[in-house]
């Protein structure tokens, strides 16, 4: 091997790459997870809609559905509801931030002691077009699996600028359809 070969890009095995290959095209064995992540529903309470409008109206949170949007919700969550492990294909963000508002919302679903360090958020993509949706799923790491503890169909737990600008909460605070009804329809479809 001469000095020119040393300067050429090499893969993980030390083989010289041809000019058409890139080091970035090579998969790193160190970035591959050693075990597949496991996802499951924390409990049936997770499928029930809640709101804290009475106790903390300033939190502006609800995950009740608008009857007109139920078909879209079913469409977006269908594949995941049948197999929560499909969440592993989504974008998982381990940094949800920490504040009293989030703590109050998470406490609607989490009854045991918990830490923000164990919380992650997953974006749900539409199963047909692979487009991002407003739907977010919140997870808590327990032992070696993620437990789905909160489903946020309106993206109101951590609202984006778009949700705030478009008054998503105000438009949906009167929604009355519990998510559990949509999940019952999904169960009937399977």
Automatic annotation (TrEMBL):
It comes from the Bacteria. This is Uncharacterized protein. It comes from Alkalibacterium putridalgicola. The gene is yfbJ.
């Amino acid at each position: 091997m001469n000095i020119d070969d040393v300067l050429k890009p090499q893969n993980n095995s030390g083989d010289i790459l041809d000019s058409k290959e890139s080091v970035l095209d090579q998969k790193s064995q160190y970035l591959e997870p050693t075990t597949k992540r496991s996802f499951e529903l924390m409990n049936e309470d997770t499928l029930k809609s809640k709101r804290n409008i009475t106790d903390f109206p300033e939190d502006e949170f609800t995950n009740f559905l608008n009857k007109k949007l139920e078909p879209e919700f079913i469409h977006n969550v269908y594949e995941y509801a049948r197999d929560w492990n499909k969440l592993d294909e989504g974008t998982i963000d381990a940094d949800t931030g920490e504040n009293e508002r989030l703590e109050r919302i998470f406490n609607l679903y989490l009854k045991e002691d918990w830490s923000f360090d164990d919380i992650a958020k997953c974006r749900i993509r539409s199963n047909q077009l692979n487009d991002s949706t407003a739907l977010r799923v919140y997870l808590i790491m327990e032992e070696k699996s993620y437990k789905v503890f909160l489903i946020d169909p309106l993206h109101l737990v951590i609202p984006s600028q778009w949700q705030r600008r478009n008054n998503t909460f105000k438009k949906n605070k009167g929604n009355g359809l519990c998510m559990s009804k949509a999940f019952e329809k999904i169960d009937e479809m399977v």
